[in-house]
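Hi there, hope your week has been kind to you so far. It would help a lot if you went through both lines with me. No rush at all, and the record is pasted right below:

***
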Amino acid sequence: MIPTFISQIPRRCLGQIVNMTFAFALVATTLIGFMMLNYIIMAIVITCQLRKSYKIDNQERVAASWVVYHLILAVIMQVSRSQQPHT
């Protein structure tokens, strides 16, 4: 209760909070695109290193494969979220 006494909530429509986020939509879209590109590049690099090297332990190979799996899964999930219609 103390924080509510210190900073009073202004008496205005809270719908403005939603409108304030639209100003950052371009920044967020650019940042997510950059992250997805980096995920894809990292997955390609790890896959190429796994194919070239033969002296890797089985545990390291499995761990690297899981990293590639999670990177690809992150990209797929982000793309599927961006394709959903907004309500």
About this structure: Residues 33-87 form one domain. The first helix runs from residue 2 to 6. The chain has a mean pLDDT of 81. Helices lie at 2-6, 15-22, 25-52, 58-83.
